[in-house]
Amino acid sequence: SRDYSAPVNFISAGLKKSAAEDMSEDDSDEDEKPVKQEEIPKEFVPKKLKTGGNFKPSQKGFVGGTKSFVDFGSWERHTKGIGQKLLQKMGYVPGRGLGKNAQGIINPIEAKQRKGKGAVGAYGSERTSQSLQDFPVVDSEEEAEEEFQKELSQWRKDPNGGKKKPKYSYKTVEELKAKGRINKQLSAPQKELSQVKVIDMTGREQKVYYSYSQISHKHNIPDDSPQQPLGKDSKPQGFALPELEHNLQLLIDITEQEIIQSDRQLQYERDMVVNLTHEIQKMSEVLSHEETAISNLSKVLEMVEECERRMQPSCENPLTLDECAKIFETLQDKYYEEYRMSDRVDLAVAIVYPLMKDYFKNWDPLKDCTYGTEIIAKWKSLLENDQLLSHSGQDLSTDAFHRLMWEIWMPYVRNIVAQWQPRNCGSMVDFLDSWVNVIPVWILDNILDQLIFPKLQKEVESWNPLTDTVPIHSWIHPWLPLMQARLEPLYSPIRNKLANALQKWHPSDSSAKLILQPWKDVFTPGSWEAFMVKNIVPKLGMCLNELIINPHQQHMDAFYWVIDWEGMISVSSLVGLLEKHFFPKWLQVLCSWLSNSPNYEEITKWYLGWKSMFSDQVLAHPSIKDKFNEALDIMNRAVSSSVGGYMQPGARENIAYLTHTERRKDFQYEAMQERREAENMAQRGIGMAASSVPMNFKDLIQTKAEEHNIVFMPVIGKRHEGKQLYTFGRIVIYIDRGVVFVQGEKTWVPTSLQSLIDMAK
Q: Which residues lie below 8 Å from residue 655, measured CB to CB, with a gap of 6+?
């Protein structure tokens, strides 16, 4: 066990035991036998540094002692390491320092034993002659040798026995400046360290310092050796004057700080001179700009004062609106910045408004609708604010032109609209058309919504279609380009009044069509169709019921009254009327005629005559086409059934030829319609790509079925004359040589692709 009551000794700084001593201490703990110096192998004993002087390196280990460059890494011979070989491969030369230029050192720090057992710094500086700061990095062997000799000469004694002269180190002003710039960057952490309280207990007495820098300036403790008395021939020995050294050092530091501070002040003044030079240049530019602005403003002020002078009643040459516009154009062209910066609203109120009132004092908008448009358009470009993006009209103070139109021009319009009759719409429409591109949008909206529309609404309420000789569309439709959707609230009462007027109407009265036809494109398609179905179609159905079909003496007036409405009512509505009220009677008359040994030439003419009464659009409808095909089938059956009786010569051939001709016309018409539809689709860019073009007729039918969401699929196990049957929606078809055949009541009927699609829907 160890004695922990013994006093604590300080550890000597800078000394480190060698590996041999560490091993000897470990062995002493176990065997309590010290290891002798002679027992250490010679290879591990450091050699002496050949310095040429009295300096002896320490022999207490590899770190504390100084080892020559020649023996660097010699211990490797007792191991299996290859470090020496690797260093040699990288260019290391034994006997020289490490690094690219051999500037490195092996043992940069040398231990120095203190005189006593005091703490760190008790006996002066701890720095050694071979510290890192005393071995600067050199770039060549000559500089390294010279530096080494300089360091080494400090250890030698003067051969003459005299006292060596002290060497002084000098610093130039540039070095002090450079040091001051570096210290300026590190001033913040040094300032914090300078305020730390430090207690020094390394001496005989306790001392208190208030910064670490005071420790480096403390007095050196003199040696304990007794002073020798001065003999007769002896020379006085040197003695330490710490206070004097401290004061001198303090004066030197103060002088250095003054130099550094002066350099900083000089640099600051130079920077200030540069900044002031730039400021002078900027101020000169600003001054010239301000002088130009003052000159321009003076000229603008002169022009404005001239305008005010000419506006006085006593002036012989009064200012006109055109001359004032020219003056404003001059201001805008030559003095644009000043014109834009000025308050144009106040300027226009003071100068332009009185001239504008005088200009329009005798104006009648309905008689001369274009009066003043050119001059107002010119003032719009001069006064309108370019930054006014939204013409809402809530803030008139932001734009001089809008305020001018609202306060000067608008009162004349209100007066004239109050006296205007809505049925005389031509002059008012022309007036607004002339000014639509001049006046602001929000003012035009105000005129249409607040002035024009209430007048039209009131007039529509008082309109009576049975007594008024002037049709309503003549004074409503001219407002469509200007008002557009604003007229929607008027359409519902107009339809109601027209419906009431049509209650006692008969199709023989053509005036109804003249009144309703202009509204077809104005009303929405849904509302127009509903109006026709409710008020017109029933009247036409009653008219067809009254039609008497007599091949020998036919009166066509009722039929013409109905067909005349084609284009007004939809095709589906017209086809429904014909299917319900015309074709049943027509087919019945045909059957009764065929049963009485008729003249088939007259029947053929009668058939073609009735068919020519319908337009191509009506004939192309599948229902109408089926009715006429049914008539052909009736005629064919009549011709084929009269085998034993009398038959007109050539009747069967004529009927067959008629059937073939009519079917061919139908196919040609449908093909032409499909070709037109394809061309229209190609023009719109909806045409199919080249890769998706059907290769045969079946593919074409498949494509059409997909476009119209119709199911097209083969019927499994079903064939007709060897041809595969298909279902196209609810219709059964088959394809033969590019022709579609649809299953009828008794036979298969050829049909076009468009008719097939219509039937499947």
A: 600, 604, 632, 635, 636, 639
C-alpha to C-alpha distance for 590 and 21, rounded to whole angstroms: 143
Closest CA to 339 of 402, 393, 284, 400: 400
Cβ atoms within 10 Å, residue 295: 10
**458 phi/psi in degrees, rounded to 5:** -65, -35
| Residues 520, 516: Cα–Cα separation, whole Å | 7
b (16+ CB within 10 A) / e for 326-351: ebbeebeeebeebbeeeebbebbeeb
The SS3 of residue 381 is helix
Q: In 3D, which of 266, 256, 268 has the Cα closest to residue 180?
A: 256
At 573-598, the pLDDT tens digits run: 899 999 999 999 999 988 888 887 77
pLDDT given for residue 274 in this prediction? 95
The b-or-e profile of 653-678 (16+ CB within 10 A means b, else e) is: ebbeebbeebeeebeebbeeeeeeee
Answer whether 600's CB lies under 8 Å from 654's CB. Answer: yes
The span from the CA of 398 to the CA of 387, in Å, is 9
End-to-end Cα spacing for the chain: 115
pLDDT in tens, 108-149: 566 667 776 766 766 666 665 544 444 444 455 777 777 777
Q: Name the least confident of 238-247, 282-291, 596-605, 630-639.
A: 238-247
What are the residue boundaries of the structural domains of the chain, listed by start? 420-495, 505-684, 697-760
Q: Is the pTM of this model over 0.90?
A: no
C-alpha 440, offset from chain centre? 32
Read off the tokens for 14: 């800078």
Angstrom distance (rounded) from CA 503 to CA 535 = 8
Distance, CA of 171 to CA of 231 (rounded, Å): 41
Dist CA 217 CA 72 (whole Å): 40
Rounded Cα gap, residues 578 and 628, in angstroms: 12
Strands 739-743 and 731-736: antiparallel
Per-residue three-class SS string for 10-68: CCCCCCCCCHHHHHHHHHHHHHCCCCCHHHCCHHHCCCCCCCCCCCCCCCCCCCCCCCC
Name the burial class of residue 149, with classes exposed (0-12), middle (13-18) and buried (19+) by CB atoms within 10 angstroms of its CB: exposed
Query: Between helices 488-501 and 453-461, what is the axis angle to 10°?
Result: 10
| Alpha carbon distance 597, 178 (integer Å) | 137
